[in-house]
Amino acid sequence: xxxxxxxxxxxxxxxxxxxxxxxxxxxxxxxxxxxxxxxxxxxxxxxxxxxxxxxxxxxxxxxxxxxxxxxxxxxxxxxxxxxxxxxxxxxxxxxxxxxxxxxxxxxxxxxxxxxxxxxxxxxxxxxxxxxxxxxxxxxxxxxxxxxxxxxxxxxxxxxxxxxxxxxxxxxxxxxxxxxxxxxxxxxxxxxxxxxxxxxxxxxxxxxxxxxxxxxxxxxxxxxxxxxxxxxxxxxxxxxxxxxxxxxxxxxxxxxxxxxxxxxxxxxxxxxxxxxxxxxxxxxxxxxxxxxxxxxxxxxxxxxxxxxxxxxxxxxxxxxxxxxxxxxxxxxxxxxxxxxxxxxxxxxxxxxxxxxxxxxxxxxxxxxxxxxxxxxxxxxxxxxxxxxxxxxxxxxxxxxxxxxxxxxxxxxxxxxxxxxxxxxxxxxxxxxxxxxxxxxxxxxxxxxxxxxxxxxxxxxxxxxxxxxxxxxxxxxxxxxxxxxxxxxxxxxxxxxxxxxxxxxxxxxxxxxxxxxxxxxxxxxxxxxxxxxxxxxxxxxxxxxxxxxxxxxxxxxxxxxxxxxxxxxxxxxxxxxxxxxxxxxxxxxxxxxxxxxxxxxxxxxxxxxxxxxxxxxxxxxxxxxxxxxxxxxxxxxxxxxxxxxxxxxxxxxxxxxxxxxxxxxxxxxxxxxxxxxxxxxxxxxxxxxxxxxxxxxxxxxxxxxxxxxxxxxxxxxxxxxxxxxxxxxxxxxxxxxxxxxxxxxxxxxxxxxxxxxxxxxxxxxxxxxxxxxxxxxxxxxxxxxxxxxxxxxxxxxxxxxxxxxxxxxxxxxxxxxxxxxxxxxxxxxxxxxxxxxxxxxxxxxxxxxxxxxxxxxxxxxxxxxxxxxxxxxxxxxxxxxxxxxxxxxxxxxxxxxxxxxxxxxxxxxxxxxxxxxxxxxxxxxxxxxxxxxxxxxxxxxxxxxxxxxxxxxxxxxxxxxxxxxxxxxxxxxxxxxxxxxxxxxxxxxxxxxxxxxxxxxxxxxxxxxxxxxxxxxxxxxxxxxxxxxxxxxxxxxxxxxxxxxxxxxxxxxxxxxxxxxxxxxx
Length: 1064
Fold this sequence. Notes:
It is an enzyme of class 2 (transferase). Its EC number is 2.7.13.3. Among the domains are: 4-116 and 258-282, 3-Layer(aba) Sandwich (Rossmann fold), CATH 3.40.50; 309-411; 425-541, Beta-Lactamase, CATH 3.30.450; 618-729, 2-Layer Sandwich (Heat Shock Protein 90), CATH 3.30.565; 746-834; 906-1062, Orthogonal Bundle (Arc Repressor Mutant, subunit A). Strands 1, 2, 3, 4, 5, 10, 12, 13, 14, 15, 16 and 17 form a twelve-stranded mixed beta sheet that branches. A five-stranded mixed beta sheet has the order 19-21-22-24-23. The chain has 1064 residues and is α/β, with parallel strands linked by helices. It is built from 34 helices and 33 strands.
């Protein structure tokens, strides 16, 4: 018979399910709900009114906890504080109305509460440090100001000092900090107050293990040893207590007991609401490990003998320390009784099973070693000590590796599914497609059902769609906002554990996702929430942009379609008329053909004003154009045989030339085409042999008007003078269209072997030669205002570097360039010239490993010498190619050491973030450079990469290590003011020396590098937040808004405000 509680619907209301002890608490309650056949609805709605990471936006799901959706409430009430006073938390709890309720950590008047004695737990570990390790100067990191339990823990610290006669020093206690800011609290003690760990304080006590972990990592980064230089202790016994180099002493928050007692109390209330309500206080026991200075949790041998010196005491200690369930105690007893049994295989099999189960549920491996130590000390026979003990130690290691690999594999499977989902969400164009993507990617993880709901207004929500097993739920439904789901769906949902994840972004609550899950992982839920929020927000922005664009396009489309329909409607009858004239008199046929051409030109001219007459602009040779024109039209030519290339639609420009030729010939004259190389561009003069003919008389001719329109649309200039029609087409630039130059000076960029300017440029009166080897960032300014000259037939490393510098210069990339012998058909002169293989690159390839794409190879001019590969393919690439340079975004020191043994080619690694430990590991590998991903946009850095491709010069490893440390320091401190002496002191070299080696290694000065990194951070803030420009500047390390705007414009080429208007 199924218990009555099967139909109970219970809400679990707490701030988070993915951080600290909350992950363990909610997953334990979820397991209890599953075994008791109750439906659990988990609401991780954030701390009340907390602005950190926009956490207050999560609060929007709390109103869903009402009598229409659930029958009872469990709430971790103390976790809701931190940003508001305790009284405000109580006021919030009152909004739950008369629903049966059990609170954890904080009493709600009229309802039972389950609490834990954090005061005694913290006091016990501090007293342990004082009595056992003679601690006298104890610093304390405080938790949030308005957190009920955090204040208890601070009082425990104060009272422990008072009880032992130690003087309270307020300088040793940090200000209140959020749970996530343990590192910031330590910085306050060490940096702001000038305290020296190990000297000014010998012990650091922390309000939580999360804070202890962050503070401990910073102590390790500063070079302090735990517990050698300073002891450290925490509270909670959460997973963070195992993540430092030594296992950490803490006090255990009885999370499992909290879950069981609170769930049982609420179940009793739901069964009988008249049952007496009472409060429960659970003890917090100290968990002694090594961060306090102890070797074993039980202390010395004499101390341990008092605790575990008899078999019954030892068994009791095992049951308590290993949290052994009653059903497992007989197996533990058997393990002790058969320690010397002859059947070693059976004995080790039993031990293997028990050890695996302990480690698989997150048990501390150090406890296994300690248990074996005390057993061998007090009870083991000599035979056990000599043989079986070693077998058990090996078994511990094997099982630990097995569990670690299994957990890592499970996490990798989860990550693979989530990554695939994120990738597909990037392409989402409408909301209705999201539920099917969820079903495809996360159902296999145990997320059995999902329902997407978005807020409509203050009164209503909209169900977008969902899935339940293999069934897809489609069709949007609007329903009352206080309901969890539309009634037709909510009444049919099955028993299970449901997580309601709030969706929000950019100060805007969007809605929520309801997930029925058998996977009780808070981190997976949070990652899913983040990905969905971004996708929904992106869809909203896309919808708004599409509506605006569609409205603008509608008017344009109506106009275009009107003219296009007229054009097509007239063109067909005109062609029919021409076909009817096939058998008529040739003169009449020619006259009709002329009129039809005029009508066609008139239609094209009309279309050119609607946008339907498009130009396909590419690099083309005017010499080739004139040669093909000569084959079908009679004219004389005056000018150079070889002409520089132009940028334009060759077919349309040919049409314009033909129209002019036919127009002049129709007037009875013969045509001479004269080509002249001028500083403003290439001018073509169409000259009639009739000197008295006036070109201006043709202004009203539709065909001639079309020819002029084509030239103007190509960026050219048209003039009519006497008996000449003149077209001037401007010189292209490396970036495409050029900005007209007022100078007539031409600077020819020559190779090392060139001592004079080629005769190709003899048409220019003022021509100078600059060798490409002299071209660098400082000399580029000498070219500004000049016209550039280039011969595309040449190839050398120096010329490639010069071309790269010019193409990536903000002004010179738009400077007119007179270029001969460039390949045709490319969209820009830069891509045309880069398309030619360089001889010095044909014997090697550029390898891009990871997520780096072809665009980087294009920027470096190596599209034909590039290999893209994954981490798994890299060794094969090295085996089959001569590698000139490896460019990667993957951190794997072991792999790079293997590759270094295969090749001396330089390795460049770019990543979003760098840690000190990562840089130190890579510093041991010669000929390796690291940088942040954002500097890849820098022309100076890419010029450095081009130089590496050609000369492959790089700093020695010890010198390069200094640059790597500076890069890490700049990345970690980019959001705060940094002075030159601070950076130099952090790296332990002089300012001038650091600047020199930094520029040599990276191609940028440290300060240019820092500015680029800060502007990258600022760009992200501008796109993802509504902060003012001044706030963005302040949060990215700039102390002056005006300076920030100048730097931003210099690097990005636009004002900061423009980023928001152009962001997708």
